[in-house]
Amino acid sequence: MAAHDKGLSPRERLLAAADELFYDEGIHTVGIDRIIEKAGVAKGSLYYNFSGKDDLVREYLKGRHARWAARIEAAIATKDEPREKVLAVFDELGAIFEEPDYRGCAFSRAIAEAQPGSTEREQASSYRTWVHGLFQHLTESMGAKDAAKLAESLVVLYDGARMSYQMDQDPRSARFARDIAEQLMDAATVQPVR
Q1: φ, ψ of residue 107 in degrees (nearest 5)
Q2: What is the pLDDT of residues 102-119, one digit of tens each?
Q3: Tens digits of per-residue pLDDT, 34-86?
Q4: How far apart are CA 34 and CA 154, in angstroms?
Q5: Residue 26: which region, alpha, beta or left (left: phi > 0; alpha: psi -120 to 50)?
Q6: N or C: which terminus of the chain has fewer CB atoms within 10 Å of its end residue's CB?
Q7: How far apart are CA 160 and CA 154, in angstroms?
Q8: Cα(54)–Cα(191) distance, rounded to whole angstroms?
């Protein structure tokens, strides 16, 4: 969705402009006037559709979360086994790392400049609840010995792969994390010898 696409509603154009500018340049460095200009709408359209910048930031981050969650859900839906579903999450990380416009996790970027109690922190918390819940559900489905511990370990791997990519620009970080995830799952699902 392009901000300049006149076939979009003013709300959609504002969200597309905010998505591009906030992600590329940062939430606090981009002012409302730049978003309005990029969207090609009147200033009144912003306040008709959003209560202000915080509301626009909230919707931007909700949109990022929804698109990523849908992408992950689609990837894991192609797999039958819970273990393969976990690996699909890391495969999807690897795929996004290869995309030329990927600049790192929108939530870690947003939280880096956020104040306590801010919209950014609120939305990052919602996203994090989803990440933890995703891995918890998948590890419980596989019958891991300690599903909660395995889930938290996988979250750390997921986060580590994202941060490693963000710092080093090396898409192999997802593959390395995937390999470690396999080892962790092997250890967590080994049946005791009788």
Answers
A1: -75, -40
A2: 999 999 999 998 999 999
A3: 999 999 999 999 999 999 999 999 999 999 999 999 999 999 999 999 999 99
A4: 39
A5: left
A6: C
A7: 10
A8: 51
